[in-house]
Amino acid sequence: MRRAVMQLGVVPDHVLVDARTIPGLAPPQTALVHGDAVDGSIAAASIVAKVHRDAFMVQLHERYPGYGFAQHKGYPTRDHLAALRRLGPSPAHRRSFAPVAELL
């Protein structure tokens, strides 16, 4: 999130963040618990991020078809966990994801 804010074309006067603050960010910020439910800009950003991530997961499915990324979108479903056990982690898997860390 810090990188996203720092790459804006302008320095914001204030940053609204869903549930937590962003370390190392100069502009003042407000963390709103359940921010996507109480602020329209956070809700819109959440939708944009989800749509972008889902499209990225479809691309990962094309690159690593055995994992079912297009279906589970990276969530730890039964099928996803079974694919991890069967195939091992792909290069795209987060090493901090507990089921991946256990397999490494």
How would you describe the overall organization of this protein?
The protein is mainly alpha-helical and 104 residues long. It has two domains: 1-33, no CATH class; 40-104, no CATH class. The protein is built from six helices and two strands, in the order αββααααα. It has helices at residues 2-6, 35-38, 40-63, 69-72, 78-87, 98-103, and strands at residues 15-18, 29-32. Strands 1-2 form a two-stranded parallel ribbon. The chain is elongated, with a radius of gyration of 17 Å. It starts with a helix and ends with a helix. The model has no long low-confidence stretch (mean pLDDT 93).
Helical stretch count? Answer: 6
Strand fraction equals: 5-15%
Output the structural class: mainly alpha
Rough outline:
elongated
Report low-confidence residues grouped into runs of 5 or more: none
Count of the domains: 2
Question: What is the arithmetic mean of pLDDT?
Answer: 93
How far apart, in Å, are the first and last alpha carbons? 28 Å
Strand order of the largest sheet: 1-2
Number of strands: 2
Which H/E pattern describes the elements? HEEHHHHH
Give the biggest sheet.
2 strands, parallel
Q: Helix amount, in percent?
A: 40-55%
Taking all Cα atoms into account, the compactness measure Rg is 17 Å
